[in-house]
Amino acid sequence: MLVDAQPLPPVIDVSTSSAASTDATLVAVGFTRRDDDYTVQRGAEETLGALGLDSFALLDRAEATGAAGETVVHQLFPAARRSAARRSKTGAQQNGIEQVALIGLGEETLTDYRRAGAALARLAKGKDAAASAIGSGADDDQLGAYCEGLVLGAFGFHRKSGQVKPPKAPLLVLTDLGSPPRTEVIHRAGALARASWRARTFALTPSNEKGPVQLEQWAREAASQADLKIDVWDERRLAKEGFGGILAVGAESAYESRFVRLDYAPKRAGRRTPHVVLVGKGITFDSGGISIKPLEGMMTMKRDMTGAASSSR
User: Fold this and answer.
1) Among 32, 131, 201, 262, which has the highest number of CB atoms less than 10 A from its own CB?
2) Do 225 and 298 share a domain, yes or no?
3) 3-state DSSP call for residue 209?
4) Are 198 and 229 found together in one domain?
5) Domain that holds residue 215
């Protein structure tokens, strides 16, 4: 029996405390390398110091290059955690931190921050919570890119048979952000990344599960969540209004065709407000050219509706 147990996007939380004082089992800090000199981000020394660790010694021992997304992981075994707890004045070790990750930030471009976020997201898979001080030294654009990487780096898609545990969204806590903690930047980046997550899921869903009627349902859900106006053409309306091309493409399909339009009007929009139109191809399986298309080409045709998935995200 196939069951829907897809991974869920991480939940991003914000804390003004240090990473070592959270309830995470994994904490991460960022670092760069210029020539032979390492630099760790603000909050890193406090975090690692509370754990009894020397960040520069860890980086030297690993011969870290500082490339974006590079990870240097240090495991804290039970004896080391108890020892650090005795040394710590903050009581940070009472929460059971098991791993520390130093993550390279490269040249600190937006792409580098996305890669760093994706690296932490992959390390955090299977953990209840991870805390990161990496955003502490980032400007708003870098912080947004980092949050996008945190979400999309955890993306996965699968179909499993039999009984599986319900998916649980991992918790990623951004720490050392100061006050105010720039929650608007984080929320916007998270919304964009989750929309991309949804579009990827649509694209990868097998075609026997996402005919045009299912696409219509997904569009209605998106419209409801985002307060969009939706208009749907069914086959009768398509024929009446002259959409012969769409009907011809879907004529031999077992599924009825649909044409979906979503509209968004800004609150202050007026007659002079420019219109932006995004048109996405929504064919759920392209069987065209089957006489000459090799098997390998047919395998990816379920993704032929990616344009529509991206436009409706």
Assistant:
1) 131
2) yes
3) helix
4) no
5) 206-311
Model-level pTM? Answer: 0.85
212-226 helix and 183-204 helix, angle to the nearest 10 degrees: 170
Of 178, 203, 228, the residue that ends a domain is 203
pLDDT in tens, 227-282: 899 999 999 999 999 999 999 988 888 899 999 999 998 888 888 999 999 998 89
3-state secondary structure at position 283: coil
The upper half-sphere exposure of residue 22, i.e. CA atoms within 13 Å in the direction of its Cβ, equals 26
Closest CA to 14 of 97, 136, 114, 145: 136
Given a contact cutoff of 8 angstroms between Cβ atoms, the answer to whether 119 and 69 are in contact is yes
Residues 128, 98: one domain?
Answer: yes
In which residue are the tokens 């059971």 written? 96
220 and 305 co-located in one domain: yes
Start-to-end CA distance of the chain, whole Å, equals 30
Residue 273 vs residue 177, higher pLDDT = 273
Helix (H, G, I), strand (E, B) or coil at 313: coil
d(CA 133, CA 306): 35
| Whether residue 283 sits in one domain with residue 259 | yes
Q: What is the CATH number of the domain that holds 109?
A: 3.40.220.10
Q: What is the pLDDT of residues 46-69, one digit of tens each?
A: 778 878 889 999 999 999 999 999
The Cβ of residue 20 has, within 10 Å, a number of other Cβ atoms equal to 27
At residue 91 the predicted structure's pLDDT band, cuts being 50, 70 and 90, is very low
The two three-digit tokens of residue 7, written as one number: 């991974």
- The total of structural domains in the chain comes to 2
- Average pLDDT over the chain, rounded to an integer: 86
Residue 13 bridge partners (DSSP):
173
> Residues, the chain, total?
313
**What pLDDT, on a 0 to 100 scale, did the predictor assign at position 64?**
96
Q: Tell how strand 99-104 and strand 229-233 pair up.
A: unpaired
